[in-house]
């Protein structure tokens, strides 16, 4: 699938998801290429339909885009709940286990998601897999002692790499932490792995989002289709 086709599917999923946001809602707005299309559509609705809602964003990038459309963005601690969060995902399987953090926003994404009544992911069909893990699993670690955390991951066979930017410097998250990507190929026991990662000292958060999502809107050539998580 070429990029233009993939973008068309992402855009269709984003437009479909935008319908879920209605007047007066507090909505979590995720991060990434698919969410950009969602925010574009919400911006259109604000301008053309007079939609009024309050947004909480999972990254500074999304905040800037939304505010450019005149969407009201507030700090997560200024709201007592979030009605719905719409975000992308790097992979999702049939058990509604997902990997997020390809855009290095996993910590804020997880904080917003955990405080949301309902979570919806928008993806193109290439992100739907049988078993997660082909996409490298992002882990946010504090810079102090990061080398030791990476060594520990190596010893456990997690095949870690420190994520670098185009200049060869470590990528920094919005909280100024590092991202270590684990090249696992497949994750057969995601709960066990999640527990192991979060209890490793120096790890702030990991990109495993397990059975958290209520619905996944998949951009499909035949039109957006919805996967509903019956375990939620």
From TrEMBL:
The lineage of its organism: Bacteria, Bacillati, Actinomycetota, Actinomycetes, Bifidobacteriales. Substrate binds at residues 31-34, 87-90, 100-103, 127. Catalyzes the reversible conversion of ribose-5-phosphate to ribulose 5-phosphate. PANTHER family: RIBOSE-5-PHOSPHATE ISOMERASE. Gene3D superfamilies: 3.30.70.260, 3.40.50.1360. The active site is at residue 109. Coiled coil: none annotated. One of its GO terms (biological process) is D-ribose metabolic process. Homodimer. It catalyses: aldehydo-D-ribose 5-phosphate = D-ribulose 5-phosphate. This is Ribose-5-phosphate isomerase A. SUPFAM superfamilies: D-ribose-5-phosphate isomerase (RpiA), lid domain, NagB/RpiA/CoA transferase-like.
């Amino acid at each position: 699938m070429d990029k233009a086709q993939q973008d068309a599917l992402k855009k269709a999923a984003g437009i479909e998801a935008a319908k879920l946001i209605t007047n007066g809602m507090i909505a979590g707005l995720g991060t990434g290429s698919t969410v950009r299309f969602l925010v574009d559509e919400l911006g259109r609705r604000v301008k053309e339909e007079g939609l009024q809602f309050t947004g909480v964003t999972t990254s500074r990038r999304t905040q800037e885009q939304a505010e450019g459309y005149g969407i009201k963005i507030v700090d997560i601690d200024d709201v007592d709940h979030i009605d719905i969060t719409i975000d992308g995902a790097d992979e999702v399987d049939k058990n509604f286990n997902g990997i997020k953090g390809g855009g290095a926003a996993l910590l804020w994404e997880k904080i917003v998601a955990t405080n949301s009544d309902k979570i919806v992911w928008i993806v193109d069909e290439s992100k739907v897999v049988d078993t997660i893990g082909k996409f490298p699993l992002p882990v946010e670690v504090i810079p102090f002692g990061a080398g030791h955390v990476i060594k520990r991951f190596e010893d456990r066979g997690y095949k870690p790499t420190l994520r670098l930017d185009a200049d060869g410097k470590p990528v920094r998250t919005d909280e100024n932490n590092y991202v270590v990507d684990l090249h696992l190929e497949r994750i057969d026991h995601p709960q066990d792995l999640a527990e192991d990662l979060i209890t490793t000292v120096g790890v702030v958060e990991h990109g495993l989002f397990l059975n958290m999502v209520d619905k996944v809107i998949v951009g499909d050539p035949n039109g957006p289709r919805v996967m509903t998580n019956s375990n939620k």
